[in-house]
């Protein structure tokens, strides 16, 4: 399953709930304000880093760039994709679940 | 692959419609089929042809309308959500149609993937 | 995953509706419930999950007269008539909010996070709201 998260983890609990209910082997794509969760060195970085062995993490590059974070270091292991990569991720996983 | 797309927010307030549009564009560019785009909740406002953003801003209603016509997409606006918000046939931009929620369930059944954008 | 069952010649998929938002503050809970009823009318295999603030949708004793909005909580009791029988509430979400299953308008299956994870992984279409 591919999970998408579009909320900042500093404002809402979408990322936390997604990580709580995401199965081992699933993928999480951070988009829109969700991309703030992909940055390293924040108060919530550990939540993703702790699941890196279980879950594949991706972040939408255009949303990172738009927010002035293009040069900011990401949590190690988080892969950057563009919209084409987003489409590929949806195609590769049988179900997509958007944590709105 | 056949994609269904659900848009739950209107233009401008949330990024959802922009993200859905970019996703649809990218899917089509990769040769996938966008089987239906369903507009629900405030998403019905994406169909309002009276929307008139400032000239230096993107016009989401026009973008969806043009993408829909260019690729012959089925752009469906939920009737119950639309009537609640004053969206009627005479307000629809070209390429949109109003129909029932069953069209969303049908998209879930018929499409290989259903991708949701919202708040 | 997507091993679709054939039902009277029509495709039946497992639809899961995940409710994460409280009622009234936004319209999502109400309009999501409308979708659940329609999916059931299409003879799909529907389950409805309540996690996070979604559990507040089921709180007994809702009285909306003072805010001028329609109390839609009785509709959850009608889901059974639509053959929507799989209602799951996450135990952790319920406990975090100091609620018990006895305080809910409708009988539900209270499941732990681990079990809910398994149930969610078996779906064909997941719609969270």
What does this structure look like?
The complex is a heterotrimer of chains A (100), B (119) and C (129). By secondary structure, chain A is an alpha/beta fold. In chain A, 29% of the residues lie in helices and 20% in strands. By secondary structure, chain B is of the alpha/beta class. Chain B has one domain (2-117): 3-Layer(aba) Sandwich (Hypothetical Protein Ychn, Chain: A). Chain B is built from 4 helices and 5 strands; from the N terminus they run βαβαβαβαβ. A 5-stranded parallel β-sheet of chain B has the order 4-3-2-1-5, sandwiched between helices. In chain B, β3 (75-78), α3 (79-84) and β4 (96-99) form a beta-alpha-beta unit. In chain B, α1 (16-29) packs parallel to α2. The termini of chain B are far apart. The radius of gyration of chain C is 15 Å and the shape is globular. Chain C has 129 residues and is of the alpha/beta class. Chain C has a single domain, classed as Hypothetical Protein Ychn, Chain: A (3-Layer(aba) Sandwich), CATH 3.40.1260.10. Chain C has helices spanning 28-41, 74-78, 91-96, 113-121; strands at residues 5-7, 10-12, 14-19, 45-50, 86-90, 109-111, 125-128. Chain C contains 4 helices and 7 strands. In chain C, strands 6-5-4-3-7 form a 5-stranded parallel β-sheet. A two-stranded antiparallel sheet of chain C has the order 1-2. Classes of the chains: A alpha/beta (100), B alpha/beta (119), C alpha/beta (129). Chain A binds chain B through residues 4, 6, 31-33, 62, 82-84, 86-88, 90-91, 94-96, 98, 100, and chain B through 1, 3, 8, 15-16, 19, 22-23, 25-27, 29-30, 32, 113-119.
